[in-house]
Structure formats: C-alpha cells, structure tokens
Amino acid sequence: MKSRLTDAEMIQRAQQVRLMIMDVDGVLTTGAIILEDHSPEIKMFHAHDGIGLVLARYAGIKTAIITQRQSPAVERRARELKIDYLYMKKFYKIQAYEDVLKRTGIPEDAICYIGDDLPDLPLMRRVGFPVAVANANWRVKEEVPFESDTPGGQGAVREVVEFILEAQGKLDAAIEQLLQPPDNR
C-alpha cells in the first residue's frame, strides 16, 4: 500500500480502524456495469475481497457499503458476507454516512473508507483512514493520502483489510479463525 504519510503515521491510523465503509463499482467490482434487457445488471466480485471482509468481521471490524446504484447482486453479496450496513441508491453518500455514524457511535478517525471516484471524496475527506484503489480517478488519488497497490475489483479491499489487521496485530488470529471448521467458530 502506498502513502504520502510516513509508515509510522500510516500504521497509527490503521490501528484505530473499527469500521470499514466501501463503495461498490470500482472498489468491490472493476467498475464495469453490464446491463441486459431482461435483468437488472450483472456484477463480478472478487473472492479475495470476500475473504478479506470475513477476516475483518472475525477481527471485530464492522463493515458498510454505500453505493449509488440499486442492485440485487449487491444485496446478495452483502448478505453473503454479513455486511453490517448496506445503503443503495445514494449518489450523495453523506446522509448514509451520517446514519452509520449515528448507529455505530464510532468516531470518524476510527473509520476507513475505500473509494475510487468523485462521489466518494466527501466521505474520504472526513474519515481517519481514506483509501483510493489503484485504479481510482486521478483527482481522488491526488487528494487521498493512501492508495492500494491492487485495482478495485481485483482484491484491493483484501489488501486494505490485511494491512489494517496486521497493524492491529489481529491478522494471524483472524486467519486461524477462518481456517476452523464452522462448528468450532
């Protein structure tokens, strides 16, 4: 992961994270939107991101999705991954963000937001750990201090989760929990 801050500052911010909020298109997917005549849309999610979000849950980090589009595929993926908060059809994401703040009581400096485009900037400007994915819009990358090495939709969320959990000293325990049979969790 790249940063315009020192490694120590980056680790210090990651250690504070208790909630991860993500955009969908361009972050959990490559950003391509496939529309068919008789179905709402098709989305491709990367399995590595899914495992990363499971690891975050095992480490006690809450998760949220705030996206501009309404999508049954996103609803299904959020349900499968047990995402704590899901907001769709939110072009202006601030209201959904304020709702998450109210519902969780988590301070802004303990929030990671992963985004890729201009509608994500208002939230990225407020959180303690804003991350632009590698394929984010150049204006977003210019403004945000952290950038993943991995493009959105190709494991960028997993990269960020592992960085945060490593900084918090929770990665190995979360991996061990993941490797346990379901009846031992």
Question: Which key phrases capture this entry?
Answer:
alpha/beta; 185 residues; Rossmann fold; two-stranded antiparallel ribbon
Question: Explain this structure to me?
Answer:
The protein is α/β, with parallel strands linked by helices and 185 residues long. It has a single domain (18-167), classed as HAD superfamily/HAD-like (Rossmann fold). 40% of the residues lie in helices and 17% in strands. The protein has eight helices and nine strands. The strands form two sheets. The protein has a seven-stranded mixed β-sheet, sandwiched between helices. Strand 7, helix 5 (121-124) and strand 8 form a beta-alpha-beta unit. The two termini are 30 Å apart. The relative contact order is 0.21.
Topology:
Elements: E1 2-3, H1 7-16, E2 19-22, E3 34-36, E4 39-42, H2 47-58, E5 62-66, H3 72-80, E6 85-87, H4 94-104, E7 111-115, H5 121-124, E8 129-132, H6 138-143, E9 146-147, H7 156-168, H8 171-179
Parallel strand pairs: 2-5, 2-7, 5-6, 7-8, 8-9
Antiparallel strand pairs: 1-9, 3-4
Question: Summary?
Answer:
This protein is 40% helix and 17% strand.
- Just give the CATH class: Alpha Beta
Return the string of H and E elements. EHEEEHEHEHEHEHEHH
Proportion of residues in helical segments: 40-55%
Structural class by secondary-structure content: alpha/beta
